[in-house]
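hey can u check if this looks right to u? its 179 residues, i copy pasted from the old doc so theres a chance i mangled smth
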Amino acid sequence: MRLMIFFLLLGLLGLTGCTAMPGMAGHVSSHQSDFDGSTQVSMEPAKVKTGALSVVLIGADWSSKSPDRVMLTAVVPGDYERIISDEGLQFNIDGDIVKLSSDQAITDLDGEYAGGMVFRESAKTFPVKISLVERIVKADLVKIKLVTGDGYVEGRFQESDPNNAKDAIERFLAEIEEL
């Protein structure tokens, strides 16, 4: 009987997926700031399907102090890449191209040593209106382009992959809506 309960719980965990776990791609969480009392909603960066060996992740942050604004974070894991600030993140939303710029002059570079390997990533944050994020989620076809110092990476936003960015952003917006 205990074994049956164990497998039932394991199956339920599989149905909810890894996105329910903090720190995993696409995980959405909210908390109240001790500093100013605002409510913060965050989404861990989640995968955008690309045709190349490169991977692009998109994360998001929102605060009740600026309810009409979302900070989208573009991440390139695997190596250090300079993400262009001026029109560095672009969306093709049902044929309408939207070019986003970042106030952040320098790309964030992060590295972590684990298991004898160094894991690197580059990230840059782009402020957008929440209405653009809602438009991205509701669109029939959304393509993304991230411009780096060495070129660019393109991908499709709607590809159904585990931990994909579109599903994660839908959960992110739903979390904001519940507040």
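The two ends are 41 Å apart (CA to CA).
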